[in-house]
Design a protein that fits this description.
Elements lengths: L3 E2 L9 E6 L11 E4 L15 E6 L4
Antiparallel strand pairs: 1-4, 2-3, 2-4
Amino acid sequence: MPNRQKPGESPRRPGEYRERGPRGGDVPKPREVTIEPGDERMPPTQKPGRIWERIGPPKN
């Protein structure tokens, strides 16, 4: 589970993140966010209990 983080945590790595269910499953209409170097916290998810999963490096 190294690429998964909870909302409010300090990001481990910059990159593209997709919202996932509590155990890493798909969710309907997931949010995708870009975390850049210097961002202090992972953003909130659409519903409590969901997590963020890193899907790749930051887009240029």
